[in-house]
Amino acid sequence: MMGSLKKSKPSSGQIFIVGIFIFYMILPIIATYIFSIATRWDRTILPEGYSLEGYMEATTNPYFFITLKNSLVLSVASVLVSLFVVVPTVYWVHVKLHSAKPLLDLLMILPFGIPGVVLALALVQVYNFQPISRSPLLLTAATVVFTMPFMYRSVSNNLAAVDIPTLTEAAQSLGANTFNVLWRVIIPNIFPGILSGSLLVFATVFAEFTLARLIVGAGFKTFPMLLVEYTRKDGTIAAGMSVISFTIAWIVSLLILWASGKGIKVSRESIGAR
Amino acid sequence: MRQSSKNRNRVLSWLGLLPFLLFCLAFEIVPILLLLRDSLFTRAGELTAANYQGAVAPLYLRSFWNSIKLSGITALLGTTIGLVVGYGVFRWPSKRVQDSLIALSDVTTNFAGAPLAFAFIIVLGSNGLITQFFLKYLDIKLYPEFSVYSLSGLILAYLYFQLPLMVLLIIPAFGGIKKEWRESATNLGANTYQFWWNIGLPILAPSLIAGFVLLFANAFGAYATAYTLTGSKLSLVTLQIGFTITGEVLHEPGIGQAMAVLSLLIMGTCIAIYQVATSRARKWTRG
Amino acid sequence: MMTYLELTDISKNFGNVVAVKDFNLSIKKGQLVSFLGPSGCGKTTTLRMIGGFEIPDSGTILLADEDISKIPPNRRGIGMVFQSYALFPNMTILENVMFGLKMQHKPKKEMTSIAEKVLDLVRLQNTAKRYPHQLSGGQQQRIALARALAIQPRVLLLDEPLSALDAEVRVALRGEIRRIQSDLGITTVYVTHDQEEALSISDMVVVMNNGLVEQIGTPQEIYRKPDTRFVATFIGTANEFHGIVTDSENVKAGNLVIKTSGLHNFSIGSEVVALVRPENVEVFDQKPTDSMVNVVEGDVDTITFHGAITRLGINAGGKMITADVTITGRNILSYHQHVWLSFNPEYCKVMAEK
Q1: C144 contacts on A by Cβ (under 8 Å)
Q2: Helix (H, G, I), strand (E, B) or coil at A206
Q3: Which of B66, B103, C121, C155 lies at a 20 to 30 A Cα distance from B155?
Q4: Is A83 helix (H, G, I), strand (E, B) or coil?
Q5: To the nearest whole number, what is the mean pLDDT of chain C?
Q6: A233 and A168 share a domain?
Q7: What's the confidence (pLDDT) of residue B219?
Q8: What is the extent of the structural domain holding C104?
Q9: Is the domain of C222 the same as that of C320?
Q10: Domain of A45, in residue numbers
């Protein structure tokens, strides 16, 4: 920590600044939560009445469960594809092909430089033939490309914190074949990274609107797409759906914290955050 | 004898990378390259710059200018305010509180998109919570001068996820300013301002540049928030490109492609600057 | 005792770099052999070739007369202890120790009994249910040793096992390793850069430098009869006197005429260096009798207290000579004191100036 004095209380300036920050961050969220259970809220500071009607009405709409299901399927599919594509590659490069690491790093930075709309445009124009044109499959490929860096960073940090080569040799010297090395030693030790990465990919894809709308559109409506529709139709239901989105995101964040916390206790400094 | 088997091993090793490379090529690299190619050709197949000329025609130039303005302002505000907030969090004495604030930032920076836009409508819309508050308690009429559906509304909404991003970036940068530097500066006679002016801020500078550039790129490429909040009222580059795909606007697809390529150039420059700045920051704070 | 582990003409290159060249060694069953040398001398590479983690470019490795060069590391029956302990973080201590037995598909009862026995051996029976990160470095290394011993390996390999530990722990643990090794009679190869470690526990020492073997011998031989300049200066310290052979016994080094115990291998006029260890340099506070040979005079420049001995640096007309003495009540020395040094020709080792 900087500064020579060990402070026990924050200064008033600190409290003010951080307080405003917290207020700015939390207010919209709380307002959304309240709006979703408000009967009428356009004339007063606080709502005129409360009711759960919005939620009940939402669940009667058949599209509600269809879009929820679609989003869940899309998210799970993205996680699975990402696991199969990214995890073995990261492990392979880390252990057998270290010279390829700069290439891998570069490829994992690329998605950050491609806006969702641009990726959507490129994919839609290239894959304009059946059966992949404007399909959920294409969308899954797009979401995987988009979220690759998250899975990569999570697994890669975990790999770096564990001395894979030495553990591998130790296991081999004790008679383990390749399968046993992977199954009993490697995977259990990188599991926290895989778990965090999967949760992050899940949460990001669940909330993804741009790619879903532009690549498939009405053919495969996702939860965020329905939400946007309701923002123009019925505010209360839109707020209710926002609440559901927020809540899922919160739960996933907590799970990620728990997953990386239960990570291998090597040393606190070596476990990457995020 | 052994040399050739070693070479064979190396080739086999690279083969292990193949599935991943194929995936990237198929769904990332090749489509983008084709996009680039198509933007340079007319429908008839002739090499042309017409698409790019069209992309900077007054109508579309305005959208570039809006996007740049929006990204620049939110990046600047995000960087400066984030710097101050970040310092406040960094110096917070209780580690528990500090960790919670970092967790809060972590979560809120991912809250972009439709739910965020809608939340801002609830708070700052024409009948919004804060709007009413200003009216009833401070006797200030925000509307119609201000509208959450305008550029200024968008700035406030973007700031919501820009600010925590900067906070997350700058806190480790503060951590990189070693205690010993402050102590030896004091020992040599410097006061707080002199320390920050001569040592602290220059050390932070690469991280600040990296943060600014990252925030700029983050805002420039955003779509969902703007779409939800403004629909088609405000012209932004990402929205225009979106219209190209959905066919909501009638113009040569080539123009959409040209705009996409120009966007990539802008984003690419940001990322390049970001990489240089972060590696510089890391170099200084390592030894 | 017959030769149990034999390395013949082993060489290994990494790209253009020669890591090990023409390495030859015969180890008898039950011996503890150390590979000793500075970083980059090839000792770890050679060890890893025995373990199967590197493949030699040329040469053969025979274990009990069986060529093991082609056998993968997980089937050589060789136990390995790593510098970083390499305990599996996701398993308890007991699970770690049983791992090798599990790979051999031993029945559960047998596994548990062997594991407990081996934990007994390293005196860490009560850690069975804990996890590696809960143990200290020294304890983790003992568990690593137990884990390697559990599979009853034919050869035990240790790669700088104590380098990561505190000095105190190192001394205690190396004694324990030697005790266990000796009790079990297990053939062991021990890599270290710490000469004190190598000299104190080994049956044989292989001194290496730049990929080549400098000398193979018992600790006493290495110390008292170094074959090469490198061994003489790497092991212990030595005073160096550079000079020319003047006759069958003497070397003229500057103003000093050094009498040796015989220079039959050197022609007159050849450039040599005479080496004398500090403990063989006697120090007098008065001019000794004329019958003493190899007398040098100078002033005490540095005095360093090392507990049992005190190391003196004496400035003899510009040349610094190191002498180790035991200080008793009667012979306290002080800075700038004028002293006389002498050493017996027997303790003077002469080598060619390369």
Answers
A1: 170
A2: helix
A3: B103
A4: helix
A5: 91
A6: yes
A7: 94
A8: 3-234
A9: no
A10: 14-51
- Please check whether residues C157 and C215 belong to one and the same domain: yes
Read off the pLDDT of residues C95-145 as tens digits, 9 standing for 90 and up: 999 998 988 888 999 999 999 999 999 999 999 999 998 999 999 999 999
Kindly list the residues from chain A whose CB atom is less than 8 angstroms away from the CB atom of residue B173.
none
Give the mutation candidate from A1, A11, A21 for the B interface (greatest B CB count, under 10 A): A21
Return all residues near B66 (Cβ < 8 A) that are at least 6 apart. B151, B234, B235, B236, B237
Reply yes or no on whether the pLDDT at A1 is more than 70: no
Reported as a single tens digit per residue, the pLDDT across A206-258 is 999 999 998 888 888 899 999 988 888 888 888 888 888 888 888 888 888 78
Number of domains into which chain A is organized = 2
Residue matched to tokens 């984030």: B82
Phi, psi of B274 (to 5 degrees): -60, -45
**Structure ipTM:** 0.86
Residues in C touching A172 (Cβ below 8 Å): 52-53, 72-74
Cβ neighbors of C201 (< 8 A, separation 6 or more) are: C32, C34, C174, C175, C177, C178, C190
A92 domain-assigned: yes
Same structural domain, C282 and C324: yes
DSSP A213: I
Instruction: Kindly state whether residues C207 and C316 are assigned to the same domain.
Output: no
A142 lies in a domain?
yes
Residue-averaged pLDDT of chain B = 85
Instruction: Considering only the beta carbons, identify the residue of A17, A126, A141 that sits closest to B85.
Output: A17
Question: Using the beta-carbon criterion (under 8 Å), do A174 and C147 form an inter-chain contact?
Answer: yes
Residue-level pLDDT at A174: 93
The residue of chain A with its CA nearest to that of B89 is A18
Quote the percentage of chain B above a pLDDT of 70: 93
> In this structure, what CATH number is given to the domain that contains residue A237?
1.10.3720.10
| Facing residue for C103 by CB, picked from A166, A176, A188 | A176
List B residues 63-82 in contact with A (Cβ-Cβ < 8 A). Answer: none
Q: How far apart are CA C329 and CA C201, in angstroms?
A: 34
Say which of A43, A116, A231 has its CB closest to residue B221.
A116
A113 lies in the same domain as A228: yes
Domain boundary among C201, C234, C267: C234
Interface contact flag, B31 A119, Cβ < 8 Å:
yes
Alpha helices in A96-212 (DSSP H): 101-109, 116-126, 136-161, 164-173, 178-180, 187-206, 210-211
Would you call A239 helix, strand, or coil by DSSP?
helix
Give yes or no: residues C196 and C331 share one domain: no
Pair B134, B125: CB distance under 8 Å: no
Q: Are residues A47 and A120 in the same domain?
A: no
pTM, rounded to two decimals:
0.79
Which residue ranges form the domains of chain B, and what is each CATH number? 59-286 (1.10.3720.10)
Starting at the edge strand that comes first in sequence, how are the strands of the sheet with C78-81 ordered?
C78-81, C155-159, C187-192, C32-36, C204-209, C212-217
Q: Structural domain tally of chain C?
A: 2
Which pLDDT tens digit goes with each residue over C317-341?
A: 888 999 999 877 666 788 999 999 9
Task: Mark whether A111 and A210 lie in a shared domain.
Answer: yes
In a domain, A31, yes or no: yes
| Closest alpha carbon within chain A to C97 | A174
Q: Does B117 touch chain A (CB under 8 A)?
A: yes
